[in-house]
Amino acid sequence: MTIKLLSRETEGELLLEGRLDSNTSPEAGEIFQEMAERFDRVILNMADLEYVSSAGLRILTHLHMTMRKKDGELVVKNVNRMVMEVFEITGFVGLLKFE
Known about the structure:
The chain has helices at 25-38, 54-69, 81-90, 92-95; strands spanning 2-8, 11-20, 41-52, 73-77, 97-98. It is an alpha/beta fold.
């Protein structure tokens, strides 16, 4: 998995590429935590994210809760059909903000 950061003052956009699974989620979780501490608004651009597993969903939940506690905002955008199906089945559609 590759994660690139686009930084804009109080907003950080992470471009996710590849798979967010048990192999990549520990490192991604550390990056997500750093972004949650640094920015008031975090955008996850999933245009090139191919797959998300339960381990990936776990770190997304943690990021969501961290941003919520600090009155920040987490936005998910450009989700492909396969990943969106996972979000729909697991109820994440009602949890996350999508653009």
